[in-house]
Design brief:
By secondary structure, the chain is α+β, with helices and mostly antiparallel strands. The protein has two domains: 80 residues, Glutaredoxin (3-Layer(aba) Sandwich); 146 residues, Up-down Bundle (Glutathione S-transferase Yfyf (Class Pi), Chain A, domain 2), CATH 1.20.1050. 53% of the residues lie in helices and 7% in strands. It contains twelve helices and four strands. Strands 2-1-3-4 form a four-stranded mixed β-sheet, covered by helices on one side. Strand 3 and strand 4 form a beta hairpin. The longest helix has 22 residues. The structure holds glutathione. The site of glutathione (GSH) has 16 residues, from helix 1 and helix 3.
Length: 242
């Protein structure tokens, strides 16, 4: 059954879906929806995702949007996907509560609820958008909105460092292999590549575990991870020169 992924490589949830497919040998057709040209708001695309956002997929009869729902679906619909991607992690000595909390889909719920998503998002980005990206879309920077968003970004990074990475494992909640939650959240944080190095260090510098976890996730999912981030690195380099 043919799988079509509608997205853009500068969009972090789009990348998460495409990296997941590539890393798990899931064949798909990549359909680029160019946000800078407003293609995501076209009537044709809104037939696929009525929210007018990327990513979305069509798989046979199924049409699905929302990246966390898509990741969860793909992890269960394709038999070759390794268990550690979406199943709960190994049982922890501390008991049932920890067993439940090690479920990657639960971590995705936190990602959706926390504002970190909006903080990194290409078009809704309170921080990156208002502090850096708006001119790319012909809009003015908004320092006040950026300042508000900065607080949320720092608070989210702090929660990842002190709660989600508190265990001794290499990935979220002590996992020793990356799950769909690691992939989704690291793709979010990778949007910080759009900031210059000093500013990126200002955000990530205090969070040593977060930095190590980003490296762990990249290394575990390379070469697919870097391949799919090429467009983001290019955009970052282009913005640095402006
Ligand atoms: N919760 C959605 C968010 C999707 C989203 O906001 N995508 C951005 C790109 S990263 C977008 O299409 N923005 C365009 C817009 O909102 O108008 C998901 O996880 O799929």
């Amino acid at each position: 059954m043919e799988l079509k992924v509608y997205g853009h490589r500068a969009s972090q949830p789009s990348r998460a879906i495409m990296i997941f497919c590539k890393a798990n040998n899931i064949e798909f057709e990549e359909v680029t929806i160019d946000l800078s040209k407003g293609q995501h708001k076209s009537p044709e695309y809104k037939e696929i995702n009525p929210m007018g956002q990327v990513p979305a997929i069509i798989h046979g009869e199924l049409q699905l949007f929302e990246s966390h729902a898509i990741l969860t679906y793909l992890a269960s619909a394709f038999p070759g996907v390794a268990d550690h991607c979406s199943k709960q992690f190994p049982i922890h000595a501390k008991g049932i509560q920890l067993i439940l909390s090690r479920e990657p889909r639960f971590i995705l719920c936190w990602t959706g609820i926390t504002q970190i998503y909006a903080v990194a998002q290409v078009l809704h980005t309170p921080y990156i958008f208002n502090a850096r990206l708006a001119p790319v879309f012909g809009l003015p920077l908004n320092p006040q909105a950026a300042a508000e968003a900065e607080k949320i970004l720092i608070s989210s990074l702090s929660t990842i460092e002190s709660f989600w990475l508190q265990d001794s494992g290499t990935f979220l909640l002590g996992g020793n292999q990356p799950s769909i939650a690691d992939l989704s959240l690291v793709c979010e944080i990778m949007q910080l590549e759009l900031l210059d190095e000093n500013e990126r260090n200002r955000f990530l510098g205090p969070y040593k575990k977060v930095q190590q976890w980003i490296e762990n996730t990249k290394n575990a999912i390379n070469p697919q991870f870097d391949e799919m981030h090429g467009a983001l690195y290019q955009l970052s380099a282009k913005m640095g020169k402006q």
